[in-house]
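Archive entry. Fields below.
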Amino acid sequence: MRHNFGAGPCILPQEVFKQASSAVLDFKDGLSILEISHRSPEFEGVVEETVRLIKELLNVPSGYSVLLLQGGASLQFSMVPMNLLPDGKTAAYLETGVWANKAIKEVKHFGKANIVASSKESNFTFIPKDYVIPEDSAYFHYTSNNTIYGTELFTLPVTKVPVVCDMSSDIMSRQIDVSQYDLIYAGAQKNIGPAGLTIVIVKDEILGKTGRSIPSMLDYQSHIDGGSMYNTPPVFSIYVAMLNLRWLKSKGGIAEIEKENIAKARALYTEIDRNTLFRGTCAIEDRSRMNVCFVMENPELEKPFAKFADENGFEGLKGHRSVGGFRASMYNALPVTSVHALIDLMQNFEETHKNNK
Ligand SMILES: *Cc1c(COP(=O)(O)O)cnc(C)c1O
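PREDICTED_STRUCTURE:
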């Protein structure tokens, strides 16, 4: 089996794949999960359990709704300002990478984006720290983990303004205090399940204040009122996400997976810092636990290392084109043994290439 370090859609546990494939053949009385009614009691049970597991694992307080939507995190770039930003008003955005950038781009259809800080000039190798969020901002938006650049924001800035977070690539990887947020969104395919499902966790009281008329499918309130069944939901993606959330719960929940994620990241960064051939690309204090970006001191060795990795069963290590080099994505389901295998690979490569650095 190959070690899957791909950035997304992500690796999921083998047992989840097995259970999902058996439900394709027989979910209930010989019927496939793909052919049953989404209004059947069995599928309503799947939606109910998925929402319950999200609430339980993330300790979602009362007063928040958990929504299972479609359109990816990318649709949230528009739905957030459409639902939260009154016409012509300003929202504060932290610019930490391509995804933040794309979120900023959509604001102009509704109001103004005020970029409170940016690390664009250094190709997003760090997270800006000292900035002011004006108190009259409609909300403050940031990306908790920058999947492409390998930076992660671990402490939330103190602000009275409602906080909106794109948590696509680190949701469920570490404990968070949901009460500090007003809206969290995440495409499922980085750490929760397959593509096609988007999770939104929204504080009910912030909705309905823009005075704007919003098309039903783009209005969080329709999905709250419809219990995430306003229209046909992504049935199979929800089912597989539910299986994965069950797996996460059986492992001891987020507290336990966080310990594992810390250990995986520490082991790999330690090797990157020790190995004479490799170098990390980000500010040490902002290093992501989910996406570890690194390059080679001698760029001419990058192709041979990529080939060596491929021949030895490693998948998805190529860095994003805007950073180059390598990116090891280490989502929840990536086994610790794969991380150790990668470290061994880097050490073996160093052994045979010591003289060409
Ligand atoms: C992948 C990713 C997105 C885009 O998600 P889609 O579901 O493809 O729209 C947005 N934000 C972050 C942080 C991501 O990692």
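CURATOR_NOTE: Residues 8, 72-74, 99, 143, 147, 166, 168-169, 187, 190 surround pyridoxal-5'-phosphate (CB under 6 Å).
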